[in-house]
Amino acid sequence: MANKHVASLFFVANVLAMLAPWLCGAAVPALFILGDSTADVGTNSFLVNSQARANFPANGVDFPNSRATGRFSNGFNSADYIAKLMGFRRSPQPFMYLVTIKSGLQKHKFRGLNFASGGAGILDITGQEMIVVPLSEQIKQFSTVCSNLTVLMGPKGTASFLSKSVFSISIGSNDIFGHFATNSTVPKEQFISVLMTAYERYIKSLYSLGARKFGIISVPPVGCCPSQRIFNSTGGCLEIQNDFSRTFHSELSTLMSKISYELPALKYSIGNTYEMTMNVIENHLLFGLKDVETACCGSGTQTCTREASFCSNRNEYLFWDLYHPTQAASFLAAQTLYMGEKRFVSPINFYELAEY
Hints:
By secondary structure, the protein is of the alpha/beta class. Helices cover 42% and strands 9% of the residues. The chain has 11 helices and 8 strands. The longest helix is centred in the middle third of the chain and has 30 residues, at 135-164. The chain is globular.
């Protein structure tokens, strides 16, 4: 019954996504997206020396006109679908794109920006060697946008505009990957505590700049990524890494509750992507997925490069490459974040956050 209920929610969310632009326009004035490769819509393509890029085939094979846009996906990602569910006709452009065009920021066209950068983490050191935009720098970029908005709208207009907008943050996985990749001996509790201290600082920084509605996306079971399964002789998930994911979500939930008590005007929603993903893995056939262990691009266990082969039945795969979900999986995730029950997203879902 639970899975039927989730399926019905998916159907309702899909209908809402299709009708929203025609019924009443976007649910919020703007959508600002920060985070890592799960939300990157092309940021890293503008970083000349970045080693974390996806602006080459077969990435984007299912995107309109089969364009490799820089998304780490065969098509759209969850940030795109969240934008569509909120009634936007298209996902916000990368901040890096905005600074390259002569017209710059225009009030009548402005509906938000995407600052997410593949490989980024909560900690500045995460992804540093790959040349990416860490969360701290993403917030500095947003501060620049705030200054420009103030010129266009004035202080009061900007404050009102930002207070009604949604700020979606999807980050943390790369920090955990980095912890294990470096064979760090820092205990789990201490490491997660460091991440939460930084996360709190960044949430409060965004709040001080005018953000009030936060759609937080926690980390998935990183130990179940194909890149990690290959280290398990049985091919199963690496539970020690998944334990970090569970602790991350638990501590993040506690942190956001604490912050919302300190800052009553703040409203938030947290997507439990650990539970969401495990539910799909354990009941994958009910979601129309046949392979939830290997990657579609790269023959299942190899890096998705320009020369890599890729599967034809992409909608039946959970993973596009060694780390990232397929377009189909991103669609499921976005629908659950938007209309899901409290088991998957709490204390309210993204739909309620937008309407609040």
